[in-house]
Each structure stands twice: as C-alpha cells, then as structure tokens.
Amino acid sequence: MTELAEPKRARGRPKKTEGERDDGNRRQALISAAAQLFHLKGYDATSTREIAAQVGMQAGSPFYHFGNKQDLLLAVMVEGMKQAIERQRAACAAQGKDLSAREQLRTLIRNQFDVLLGPDSDFIPVMLYEWRSLNDAQRQTITRIKDDYEAAWTPVLQALHDTGQLQAPVGLARLMIFGALNWSVQWYEAPSTTSPSSPTRRATLDELTESALQLFLPDRAAAAAT
Amino acid sequence: MTELAEPKRARGRPKKTEGERDDGNRRQALISAAAQLFHLKGYDATSTREIAAQVGMQAGSPFYHFGNKQDLLLAVMVEGMKQAIERQRAACAAQGKDLSAREQLRTLIRNQFDVLLGPDSDFIPVMLYEWRSLNDAQRQTITRIKDDYEAAWTPVLQALHDTGQLQAPVGLARLMIFGALNWSVQWYEAPSTTSPSSPTRRATLDELTESALQLFLPDRAAAAAT
DNA sequence: CCTACCGATCGGTAGG
DNA sequence: CCTACCGATCGGTAGG
C-alpha cells in the first residue's frame, strides 16, 4: 500500500545527484509519512520504524533529521498549520472585502472543512487529536500559530454578534463552531474505493458548509415563513 | 494526587472480610482507575502497570479481571455509556413530556455537558477520543449503545426541523451539535485548585448550555429586534 | 543516511 | 490476586 509513496531507489540508499542538497526533500517526506500514519493509527501507536520504512529509510535514520519522535510530531503540526493559514489567507483574499459577514463566515467554514477533510488533510487532524503528546514548550509554539489562524474568525463573529445574527457570546460561539466543524473528522467518511456509488452518498464539503451555516445562522426569511 | 482515590489498605493485599465476594468491587476500581488514566494520558501512553498500581495491585493482576488491555478499555466505555444513558433517561423523565422541543433540547444539552465535564466525567471522553484503539467487534458493541443514547435526540431535532426552528438537515445537525458539545472536553478548564478566584472565571455548565442553545436555536424575538 | 546495537518498558503468562 | 518471568518492540545512539 505504500510502494507508490516511496521514492524510487536503485537498491540501498538513494544516490543523490552530487552538489545538490535535498535534505529538505527527505525531511518533508518524513513529515508527510508521519502525518499519514499519526492520523491513521495515532502518535503512540506509530513507531518511528514504520515512518522510516514508508519513505525507504532504515530504523535509525529519522533521527538524523529529527532529534526525537516528539519533534517530528511538532513538525507535522507546524507544517499543517502553515498550510492552513496560507489557504485561509488565500480564500479570504479571493473574495474581496465588502462581502457580508455571513458570506465571510461561509468562506471560513468552507476552508476549514477543506483543511479537515480535503486532499492532504492528515496534518490538521493530527494537530487536533494529538495535542496531548506535545511537551509544554511545543504546546506554546502551536498555541501561537493556532491563535493566528483563529484570529481571522473573531471579527467576523463579532460583526454577526453586533447585528444580532449571532446571539451567543463570541468567544464561546467560536469554540463551539470549531467543535462542530472539527468533529467532522470523526464521522466524515473518506471516499470509499469500493461501492462505486454508495446508496447513501456522503455529503460534499459544500453541502456540509451549507448545513453548518444553516445551523449557526438560520435564514431569517425561511424562519419567519413558519 | 491519586492517594485519595486508592482504597485504604493495611500493607500488602487488602484482606477481604471472609465470605464476602467483592470481585465486582476490585473490577470496578480497575475500570475507574483506567478511565482516569486513559483520559489523562491516553490509552497507549497508559501502562497496565500504572492502572494496577493506582488500585494497589501488582503488575500482572489486572489480567485476572480482564483478558487484555483492550477489554479494559471497552469496559471503561461501556460503563460510561451506561451511566450516560441512565442520566439522560432520568433528566428527560424529570421534566415531563409536554415541554416545548426547545426545552427538551436544553435538557439534553445540559445533560451532555454534565456527562462530558461534570463529576466522574472520565469515561465518556475516553470513549470519544480512544475509539481508534478498539477492534472491530468492540466498535460494534459501542456503536449499538451509542445509537441508543443518540436516539433520544432525533425526535427532538426532527420536531424543531418541522417547525422551521432548525433548518439544517436533522442528521447533519445532530452530528454538528454533538461536535460542538463534545469538543468542550478539549478546551473547558477543569476547576483549578490554584488561583482561588481566577480573573476570567470559567463558564458554568449552565452558561455553556445557554450559549449552545443560543447558537443553535437563536431567540426569535431577540433576533427580530435588530 | 546505514549498521549494529542497547537499555527500558510493556503486555501478558504460568503456577501457585 | 501475587511472584517471577519472558518475548517483543521501541526510541534512540555510536561510529562510520
């Protein structure tokens, strides 16, 4: 199952074209493999040997790139957050500034589902569910980055609160909304390779976004019609 | 920190009053200790030796009560769900049948916060976050019990949907609401023993309930006033 | 980055 | 439920 992910190598260690440093390349491969395995089996249940094997290394080699297993976990989370922040920035920038707060929230939610469930979505779930395995210093590092990510949500929620569209306290609302979205990692079904068209097709990320928006910001007109 | 939880014992093994079988007692003690440690450190990071030590047993003794570590994990989850279902049944029964769907949802949410964050709240978080460590047969067992627990929510949400108070599809709404509530395990601060009155007092479970209700079922009158 | 290796820990068992 | 124990695995290291 992992053969495709392995770099091709002609027996033994990969001969690198001389003069070219691809340290970053191998390091990245370790981070990606770790993200995949940590997501699938959990941090504690994944051995550094498995990670090494997945990228075609020997048992001790990951420790040439990372001081210890915990540092590798941190690298997975940092990498994931960097991607998430960049995607969020791009998504918000792409829609201009004069949209309604409701539309801005839609964009943020849609991006969050993408980060959680879309392609290359192993990193953030690891961050969400392996927090416990970090040490204090590492937690501080991640907290700083996460605060940066979440900062984009506060003004939008505040605006909705000011207009009465969102009645719950902004701080708690943010936590509960993140909970509702993040929890999807637990139940959203990965696209199954078996059963080409399953009887109950799973919702698309757009449908999830729409439902979340309906849940948190019900449509006034539709509600009044009752 | 765990001394208080340990049964008092006068050196060595506890001398049981003769004729009295307290197998259930020791078994329960193991389940409680396991719940505590699994919640605090995670399943994989908790050794059966630690659990044994916490109840004053020797390293191999837990395996007199449980075939293996996984079975102990299952027992923690089953015990937690039994308690949760019983509490939910009692909470719903205590309020009669002719309350509005909104009030019924309030009761369900309040009970869920209690199960997640109140006293003896180690069991359900373990169930929520250690699902991965179960085998297939065990997952089926828990799924059945969990379906039973969640069944109480569906008619309430359906009623709210029928009246237009809840616009999102009932199934997705249930998943997202559970997510919003369950996620609180990650951020809700345990009562700190230090700092007698912290500057930003943490919300009470009643306040959390009210905010959640505001988030999912905003008050019509308040919204219309804007 | 590989080879060869080590100390520690862990789940679990036999036999009482 | 304790005593005594084992096989397996794991994170990590020295030395090249």
From TrEMBL, chains A, B:
Record keyword Coiled coil present: yes
Gene Ontology terms for molecular function: DNA-binding transcription factor activity; transcription cis-regulatory region binding
Keyword field contains Membrane: no
Region spans: Disordered: 1-26
Pfam families: TetR_C_24, TetR_N
DNA-binding region: 47-66
Keywords of the record: Coiled coil, DNA-binding
Residue stretches making up the HTH tetR-type domain: 24-84
SUPFAM superfamilies: Homeodomain-like, Tetracyclin repressor-like, C-terminal domain
InterPro entries for this protein: Homeodomain-like_sf (IPR009057), HTH-type_TetR-like_transc_reg (IPR050109), HTH_TetR (IPR001647), KstR2_TetR_C (IPR041490), Tet_transcr_reg_TetR-rel_C_sf (IPR036271)
Entry protein name: TetR family transcriptional regulator
Species whose genome carries this gene: Limnohabitans planktonicus II-D5
Lineage: Bacteria, Pseudomonadati, Pseudomonadota, Betaproteobacteria, Burkholderiales
